[in-house]
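Severity: low
Component: inverse-folding endpoint
Summary: output formatting inconsistent between runs
Steps to reproduce: submit the following structure tokens with default settings.
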């Protein structure tokens, strides 16, 4: 609300109060009351509502559940009290007080006028009393009028008017009495001569009395006149001069009052209009052009004052707006100044003193902050100690000066330390760059590490040690590399030696001891080989001469072929168009030797032939494996030359430490293109080299034609076998197939035959199953013995026969015991009804109400239990977290109430207490103490839980370890059976325990599987309540899992 509107409201209220006061002045009777009723404190509605209750509601940890019994742990929940809003009443009371203050201010203007009116009444009263000699109490006349309030003057004026009316009545009655006395005197006279004169006088007196009465009525009309017109219409001509004089005096008095009243009302109306016009104008020119007419001098003065004040207000408002704008501008400049130099350029002018003082204070604070920030930035960014020492700190307060001095001290110390660290860092960087580039160990050790910090020195020493280790490792690796290269070079040279003479010229040096020993061992072995290589041709020739009959291949078997393929894959043996492989099953050293069609001999001493043959796998030169394999092959990109190839075998060594007796069984496998051969034999240590096979190899064209033809035949016959639907459809194996493919086709035929046999077996079983089901259905449908006897089962197999016979016996017994059929039907119906009840349950409460009939079989009861458990899971899964938690809390509260109904425990005697054990365990596990401590101990690994219900109906337990009233579960043990000496503790801090009743429970939560031998857990409960101590003993078992202990009363 702006100032103009507020001033207008105040002036309006003053005017209304003045008009009402004037109206009271001109009333015949005045009541001693004010325009505004007195205000009493009793008129306010005082609410005892606690304002703190208006804060946000506290979350209830444990939901409150309504119970019937008042003494149970969970009675009916409390209701919140409504909050009464008395702000409107207070606002009205404040407005009334403001109006009262305004009224008091305005009434003072009417006080002087009221005094003048009262003085006029006093003059009239004194005149009547002197004229008619009327005595009255002079206290009301002599009482002073000065110092009275307007309401007191109203009361005094009313009393004076009443007194004036009373005196006037007395004077009138006195005149009337005089006339009546004179009339009576005349009537009482006996003189007849005076009768005529008496009659005349009586007539005159009657006329006078009548005139007096008319005068009285006219006086009443004058007093009660409300308008001037009514007064002017009154006629005084019928009265005597004396009466007319009296009546005119009254007339003039009331005429003047009415005239004054009308004049005042008119003046007040004009005054009000002028005042409204002044107050509603917002331009000074309009206000100055107003001419005041039809108002009294006082109102004129007041209007002039209002005009002056209004103009002043407008000037002040304009000036205030300018000052406020200037102040806001200066304030913005001060607040937005970025430095003290910019701030010093600001001049505070064009504002009032209050704003100037406020701005100067803001300027001072802003300058202190800017100077502080500038000095803080200068100190923080200063890089030289000399500049910091030369810095003068002024223009800030003591706190900021102390902060800046501390900052300068810290910055100086940091700069000094930074300079020192730079020197250290230069030396550190130099050494850090130098150490990794030193390649000589001696040079590395001669470097001195100084002029660095301790941490840098440690780091550099660590770097030097790591560099030293690196150089030593590099030297070692270099030596090892040189030794490895020398070892490889010597080994190649040794292995490439063609004779013992060349081998003896090789000198072993430049290697380590292990490599030297290995090379010497290779030399010795190779010397033996080379020594024998010269005579191996002689052994081959002798073997050919000794062989009178060319060896024939044996029957090609699948098992050796499978073993051969496994070992070839394991040892990664090569394969090709021509391949000679030998396998044996001990660690003896057998050597495979092949003489090619060109006369070249391939053996372990000569691993390659000019025609492409390669000895790629040799075993058991040293005892290596029992699953031995040696392989000579012409790789796939090599075509063996046409001709006859002879294969020889030599038992070179029987390793004594293996203790394997000879003879050694061997199998030679030969591949020539698409054909495969197997040769079997035995050999012993000491046998001479002998020929084991002779193979003819065709030319390249013939070999590839054979491969293509044989492969085509194999693929066709394999497809026929796979597509055969019976044994008769299997083809005869074509002799053109190789021995390997012939075996593979034979095994494929066997596999297909087994699959066909399995299909026939499954078909037979399906037919038997269908027949069995038909028979069992006939048995079940049989209603009497005759129908049961008519069932035929001649075509059933023995496997199903015993089941059919059992079903017949069982059905016969059912038919014979038909009396129980109805009972069984009824029982089944009850079973289905309970199943339906379980399925129809929509809450866990309904589910728990389903009670199983004892006449049900164990199987049916177990089935119903499983159904109820499954339905419970479904119901719980459809509930949200709030409903689920409410359901859990409801079941918990019901369980606690049921346990409470069973009764608590008696406290133990003090002689049976275990206080020392409680103190020891509580101390060991760091328990806390307070106003109330409830502790639980037991002596096995079962999981027991301590529960306490607080006066606010919250349950403290392992899933809710704290309550809103300060209860805390600080120790909870044996979730997993950790200890045999557990303890649990719940406490309330000092001063936090609320008054009320606390309920203590113990719950056997779990009997751990590993410790089920203990089916009884005796526990002790200690309760400490503000110095008092009590102890209880509770035996817990699977039949008594929840035990109510006792109540704790806190006053």
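Observed output (run 2 of 3):
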């Amino acid at each position: 609300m702006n100032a103009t509107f507020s001033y207008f409201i105040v002036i309006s209220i003053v005017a209304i109060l003045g008009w009402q006061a004037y109206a009271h002045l001109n009333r015949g009777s005045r009541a001693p009351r004010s325009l505004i009723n007195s205000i009493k404190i009793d008129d306010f509605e005082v609410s005892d509502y606690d304002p703190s209750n208006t804060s946000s509601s506290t979350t209830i940890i444990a939901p409150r559940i309504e119970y019937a019994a008042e003494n149970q742990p969970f009675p009916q929940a409390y209701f919140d009290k409504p909050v009464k809003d008395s702000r409107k009443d207070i606002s009205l009371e404040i407005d009334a007080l403001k109006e009262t203050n305004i009224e008091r201010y305005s009434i003072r203007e009417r006080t002087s006028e009221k005094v003048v009116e009262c003085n006029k009444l006093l003059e009239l009263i004194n005149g009547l009393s002197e004229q008619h000699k009327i005595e009255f109490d002079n206290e009301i006349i002599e009482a002073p009028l000065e110092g009275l309030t307007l309401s007191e003057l109203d009361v005094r004026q009313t009393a004076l008017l009443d007194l004036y009316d009373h005196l006037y009545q007395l004077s009138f009655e006195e005149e009337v009495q005089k006339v009546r006395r004179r009339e009576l005197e005349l009537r009482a006279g006996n003189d007849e001569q005076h009768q005529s004169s008496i009659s005349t006088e009586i007539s005159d007196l009657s006329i006078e009395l009548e005139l007096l009465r008319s005068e009285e009525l006219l006086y009443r009309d004058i007093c009660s006149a409300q308008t001037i017109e009514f007064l002017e219409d009154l006629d005084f001509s019928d009265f005597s001069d004396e009466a007319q004089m009296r009546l005119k005096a009254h007339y003039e008095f009331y005429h003047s009052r009415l005239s004054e009243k009308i004049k005042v009302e008119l003046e007040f109306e004009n005054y009000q209009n002028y005042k409204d016009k002044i107050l509603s104008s917002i331009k000074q020119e309009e206000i100055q052009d107003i001419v005041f007419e039809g108002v009294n001098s006082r109102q004129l003065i007041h209007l002039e004052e209002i005009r002056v004040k209004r103009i002043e207000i407008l000037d002040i408002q304009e000036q205030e707006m300018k000052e406020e704008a200037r102040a806001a501008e200066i304030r913005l400049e001060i607040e937005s100044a970025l430095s003290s130099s910019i701030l010093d350029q600001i001049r505070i002018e064009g504002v009032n003193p209050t704003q100037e003082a406020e701005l100067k204070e803001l300027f001072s604070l802003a300058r202190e902050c800017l100077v502080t920030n500038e000095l803080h930035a200068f100190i923080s960014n200063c890089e030289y100690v000399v500049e910091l020492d030369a810095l003068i700190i002024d223009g800030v307060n003591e706190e900021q000066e102390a902060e800046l001095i501390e900052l300068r001290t810290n910055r100086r110390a940091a700069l000094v330390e930074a300079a020192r660290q730079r020197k250290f860092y230069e030396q550190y960087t130099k050494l850090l760059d130098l150490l990794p580039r030193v390649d000589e160990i001696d040079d590395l050790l001669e470097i001195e590490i100084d002029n660095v910090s301790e941490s840098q020195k440690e780091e550099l020493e660590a770097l030097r040690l790591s560099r030293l280790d690196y150089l030593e490792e590099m030297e070692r690796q270099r030596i090892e590399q040189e030794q490895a290269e020398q070892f490889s070079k010597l080994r190649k040279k040794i292995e490439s030696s063609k004779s013992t003479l060349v081998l003896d010229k090789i000198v072993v040096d430049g290697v380590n001891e292990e490599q030297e020993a290995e090379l010497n061992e290779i030399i010795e072995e190779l010397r033996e080989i080379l020594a024998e290589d010269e005579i191996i041709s002689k052994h081959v020739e002798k073997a050919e001469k000794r062989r009178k009959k060319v060896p024939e291949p044996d029957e090609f078997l699948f098992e050796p072929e499978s073993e051969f393929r496994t070992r070839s894959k394991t040892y990664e043996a090569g394969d090709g168009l021509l391949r000679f492989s030998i396998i044996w099953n001990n660690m003896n050293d057998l050597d495979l030797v092949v003489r090619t069609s060109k006369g070249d001999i391939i053996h372990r001493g000569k691993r390659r032939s000019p025609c492409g043959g390669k000895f790629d796998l040799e075993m058991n030169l040293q005892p290596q494996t029992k699953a031995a394999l040696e392989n000579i092959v012409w790789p796939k990109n090599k075509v063996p030359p046409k001709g006859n190839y002879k294969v020889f075998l030599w038992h070179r060594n029987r390793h004594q430490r293996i203790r394997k007796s000879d003879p050694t069984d061997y199998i030679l496998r030969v591949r020539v293109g698409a054909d495969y051969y197997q040769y079997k034999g035995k050999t012993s240590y000491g046998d001479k080299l002998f020929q084991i096979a002779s193979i003819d190899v065709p030319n390249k064209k013939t070999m590839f034609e054979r491969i293509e033809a044989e492969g085509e035949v194999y693929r066709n016959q394999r497809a026929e076998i796979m597509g055969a639907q019976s044994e008769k459809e299997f083809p005869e194996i074509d002799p053109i197939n190789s021995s390997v493919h012939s075996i593979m086709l034979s095994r494929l035929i066997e596999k297909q035959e087994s699959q066909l046999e399995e299909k026939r077996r499954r078909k037979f079983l399906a037919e038997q199953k269908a027949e069995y089901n038909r028979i069992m259905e006939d048995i079940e449908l049989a209603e009497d013995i005759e129908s049961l006897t008519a069932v035929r089962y001649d075509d059933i197999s023995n496997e199903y026969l015993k089941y059919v016979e059992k079903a017949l016996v069982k059905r016969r017994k059912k038919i014979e015991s038909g009396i129980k059929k109805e009972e069984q039907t009824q029982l089944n119906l009850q079973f289905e009804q309970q199943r339906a009840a379980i399925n129809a349950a929509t809450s866990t409460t309904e589910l728990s109400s389903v009670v199983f009939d004892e006449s049900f079989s164990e199987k049916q009861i177990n089935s119903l239990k499983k159904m109820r458990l499954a339905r419970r899971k479904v119901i719980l899964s459809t509930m949200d977290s709030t409903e689920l938690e409410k359901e859990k809390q409801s079941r918990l509260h019901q369980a606690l109430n049921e346990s409470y109904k069973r009764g608590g425990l008696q406290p133990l005697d003090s002689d049976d207490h275990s206080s020392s054990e409680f103190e020891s365990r509580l101390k060991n596990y760091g328990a806390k103490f307070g106003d109330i401590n409830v502790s639980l101990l037991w002596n096995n690994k079962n999981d027991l839980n301590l529960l306490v219900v607080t006066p606010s109906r919250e349950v403290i337990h392992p899933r809710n370890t704290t309550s809103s009233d300060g209860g805390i579960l600080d120790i909870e043990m044996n979730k997993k059976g950790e200890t045999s000496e557990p303890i649990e503790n719940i406490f309330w801090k000092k001063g936090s325990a609320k008054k009320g009743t606390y309920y203590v429970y113990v719950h056997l939560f779990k009997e751990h599987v590993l410790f089920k031998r203990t089916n009884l857990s005796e526990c002790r409960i200690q309760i400490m309540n503000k110095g008092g101590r009590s102890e209880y003993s509770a035996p817990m078992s699977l039949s008594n899992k929840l035990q109510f202990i006792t109540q704790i009363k806190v006053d």
